[in-house]
Amino acid sequence: MTLLAKDIPSTVGKIVGEARVVDFHTHLFTPCHGSICWWGIDDLLNYHYLIAETFRYLSVPHEKFWALSKPQQADLIWKTLFVDRTPMSEAARGVVTCLSRLGADPNVRDLNKIRAFYKSFTLRQFIDRIFGLTNLEYLYMTNDPLDPDEREVWLKGHEDDPRFRKALRVDNFFRNAEFSQKTLKSDGFPVEKTLNPKSIKNLRKFFEKWCDLIQPEYIAASLPPDFTYPSKTNPYAKMIGQVVLPIARERNLPVALMIGVRRLVNPLLKSAGDSIGRADIHAVENLCLENPDIRFFCTMLARENQHELCITSRKFRNLTLFGCWWFVNNPSLIEEITKMRLELLGLSFIPQHSDCRIIDQLLYKWDHSRIVLSKVLAEKYADLANSGCDVTEERIRIDVGNLLAGNVKEGLKR
């Protein structure tokens, strides 16, 4: 039945709100991962977005903050951003949304009352509740065999949760170079700083071993803005070209590229000190052109890259854009980017991923994104109706189902 123009916004909002979601990229882990499975108010407040924002107001030395315990840091962030000031930023509003959706009062002054509220959950109960509230079908972890904490979990064995699927991350080889070299050597795959042919061969064997161990559904790499491809000198290009692509081709695995992060521009902020840079789109074009048999997913960090990335995706059917990553994961930019993608790519992209690091964040990341997606889609369906196209509830359900889940499933199908 064709919808009346006045009924389109409410119908779209209802369908988007009820739709099942597949989250293509997160930094979440199952309970068996122990200390790197983050949840609860102290972890939520110690999110690196909020740490960086807190230092906008604090005059205390950075080292004094880092010397505090996690609860003490959370107390300081809570007082600075939620008691002394209005939680206006997207990350701060996200905490308010999380607490409200869980049934806690975000207006209390005493953080211990919120901590007491969380104590009513076991971790497994909490995860079940979050998946239910977000209508999340499943998500993808980012699994890094060169992270010392995560590595031990995989080597000792773990309990699988089918809602937490796996993606093999490779770029930490460069970011944690000293540990990486020691680890690969102890595993029997020694490498040298020059990444000579023997090193490349051993690096590939190392990641093949981990593919066998964790059975990832795609390979992921976070790359700096100066990533170029092809290149004889860029170390990331060597990694992608001589390690990642051969593994992807042999195992029929897609490759997800996240491009544009500049690490630790302010080391005093630690994990909150990363920044952004405009990337070279030609690297993505060259990868897609030279490897038509490999499926690429891509997201870029700089707003300035979004239009040319969209155009590139129009030219290569083996390239799928996904999500609004990190510094563009804000409602105003999500709206702008999603509109542009719909206008240039139709429905052939993945509009959002959460990039969550704390399980609670699934609530606000998806709640806020659903609101934006509903608004954008309602406008586009209204435009279609004004142009003479029949807009039906059935058609909207199919479209939304593909955007929020189907395009991920189809893109990762083997």
Structure description:
It is built from 18 helices and ten strands. The chain is globular. The model has no long low-confidence stretch (mean pLDDT 96). It has a five-stranded parallel sheet with strand order 4-5-6-9-10. Helix 15 links the parallel strand 9 (296-300) and strand 10 (319-321). The protein has 414 residues and is of the alpha/beta class. The protein starts with 7 loop residues before the first helix and ends with a helix. The longest helix is centred in the last third of the chain and has 26 residues, at 361-386. The chain has one domain (5-411): Alpha-Beta Barrel (TIM Barrel). The chain has helices at residues 8-18, 41-45, 48-54, 62-66, 70-83, 90-102, 111-118, 123-134, 148-156, 172-175, 177-186, 197-214, 235-251, 281-290, 306-315, 331-345, 361-386, 393-411; strands at 21-23, 136-140, 164-165, 168-169, 219-223, 255-259, 261-262, 275-276, 296-300, 319-321.
Brief rundown of the structure:
This protein is an alpha/beta fold and 414 residues long. The protein has a single domain, classed as TIM Barrel, CATH 3.20.20.140. Helices cover 51% and strands 8% of the residues.
